Amino acid sequence: MSLPSTxxxxxxxxxxxxxxxxDQLKKDAPLEVLGIDSLGVADLLFNVEDEFKIILPPExxxxxxxxxxARYIDHLVAAQHGASPxxxxxxxxxxxxx
Length: 98
Known about the structure:
Elements: H1 6-18, H2 38-52, H3 66-81
């Protein structure tokens, strides 16, 4: 059994903390359209730090879509853990593994 992808794990956070439905969560879904403003992104990134055991750099990142956030997480995981991140899959989060 394979581990959930970064995208799947991120979607689980979004469904739990932001009460979003799986069918809303696609890589190209703009965060703003999902009701996640800049303050919401900051809050999301705190949860991401805990879930992925990473430390966010002080420099802000331009994260406009769910896919942007997943790629950002993959980059930080690879840089901080020296491991290959689980690729963010292009399909929606509507999966039985969540």
